[in-house]
Amino acid sequence: MDYIALGQRIRDLRRKRGLTQEKLAELVDLSVPYISHLERGTKKPSLAVLIRLAECLGVTVDRLLSGNQAKDTTAFFPEIQELLGDCSVSERAVLTEIAYAAKRSIRVHGVSRPP
Question: Does domain 1-70 have CATH number 1.10.260.40?
Answer without folding.
Answer: yes
